[in-house]
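[SOLVED] Predicted holo structure with flavin-adenine dinucleotide

Edit: marking solved, answer below. Original request kept for reference. I posted the sequence and ligand SMILES and asked for the 3D complex as structure tokens.
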Amino acid sequence: MTDVDVLIVGGGPTGLTLACELARRGVTFRVIDRSPEFHHQSRGKGIQPRSLEVFDDLGVVQNFLDAGTAEMPARIHMDRRFVAELHLLAGAHPRPDVPYPTLVLLPQWRTERILRARLAELGGHVELGLRLAGLEQSDNQVVAHLATGEVIHASYLVGCDGGGSAVREAAGLAFPGLVSETEHYLLGDVEVDGLPRDGSYVWYAADESSVGLALLPGTQSWQFGLTVRPGEEGAGQEPSLELFQRLFAQRTGRTDVRLHNPTWLSRFSYKVRLADHFRAGRVFIAGDAAHVHPIAGGLGMNTGIQDAYNLGWKLARAVRGQAPDSLLDTYERERRPVAESVLRTSGAGMTTLFSTKPLMTCLRDRIILPLMRSTAVTKAIISKTSQLSVNYRDSELSVGDKGKVRPGDRAPDSPCRHPVTGEPSRLFDLFRGPHFTLLHFGAVVPGLAERLDALHGDDIRVHHLEPGPPSKRYGAGKGTFVLVRPDGYVAVRTRSADAVADYLRTLSVA
Ligand SMILES: Cc1cc2nc3c(=O)[nH]c(=O)nc-3n(C[C@H](O)[C@H](O)[C@H](O)COP(=O)(O)OP(=O)(O)OC[C@H]3O[C@@H](n4cnc5c(N)ncnc54)[C@H](O)[C@@H]3O)c2cc1C
């Protein structure tokens, strides 16, 4: 007998996304967090386009668009001189296939607050002050021991408990990588007097140091960030407002700018780590528990949100006995390569931007930053970090014919006529919810919808689409079927109704 289907350890962005995914599928779960209160730190302040699509599916994207901002010029200084104003977030407009083309800036605590509100609507909540102290597992359950002495029996346990994950440790999952003993960042949330509140600021110096102040939308605060190298002032010191103020003035020459009212003061080291495995039996890890990123990469939180989105529907099927255990193996097989590739890219970006090596510094100052003033280049950067091109083409869950949109690709949006009401609609409206969606282009197969409905009920929605923008976007001729997974990736592309039915059968235990 178990107490819950799934125990989620950690109520950060990853745990909250997973909880929403499970809640809307009727899975029983608990979310525990060791912290006595919800944190109030800006940390991951950039929500990438693909995460916005996840939030669209969860029904909260408008809350993010209303709360955050997609327009924030970055004012770059070299050796205390203003050299460029970069509009990294401007210039990208919604397209029929990409409704949310730019990063939205929002402090992480506000992201978590929106997700907690959605979770509450779905009937869940985070239980604070409960620390996982240990766990053991058998063939049919996981037994979690909390520091309070409470014991929770669950069918599955997911560690969304951050970089220092106790779950990862207890499950014996190795976490190799690089943790720099020497390179640190001082980070914090402070209020600032003396700078216009309409942009963010970065100061680079010839001695390769940097300081940044990023305005945090919807708050009075700015995120302060500063690199500290061995031997420099601040290297061995505890973070304090006085230290932040002193180093800021030294590096920028701006004695007219005053930092005050800090709500978070912290010190981080440069880290790149990736767990060898994301699963051990009935225990999974996701988010920072599975991969830790250099903070300037701006993708750590987003990658965790998308881990949870990948795992949620699979766990729900497993819990309901609707899927073979092998479906759960595809979580690691699909998500670990994504995390690995993100780490490779953000590690490289970080090395170039904050390098101490003369060649890198020259590259940054003479080539990268000037190039970043070009709209075409900034668009290219945005499309690289948007995570819209993440795909699972190599997954065993991606089968069928190649085409303009291939099995494993993100299923793009498109305007369409709603197949039932005839009203103007979007494919994302058809995808929204916990079900699979079968798009059937151009021809009706009599009895197919009824057959699938009898076998899979609410799990699948079948839509017949006449030629129009969706068929053009998907390059789908008459008679093409495109089966879209609950997490918005193409599962099957085929011209055979039987192939779709067979695919769905392989995902089911029945
Ligand atoms: C300054 C800074 C800037 C960043 N900028 C970005 C950015 O722009 N974009 C981006 O995508 N990412 C960014 N990141 C990274 C981002 O903050 C993390 O990737 C993100 O918080 C990971 O989310 P998570 O839910 O996996 O883990 P966390 O947010 O770390 O949450 C883990 C939770 O687990 C709880 N917990 C830990 N141990 C236990 C236990 N034993 N029992 C119970 N609960 C436990 C913790 O209290 C915590 O609430 C930044 C990070 C920093 C520090």
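OP edit: Residues 479 and 495 are 6 Å apart (CA to CA). Thanks to everyone who chimed in.
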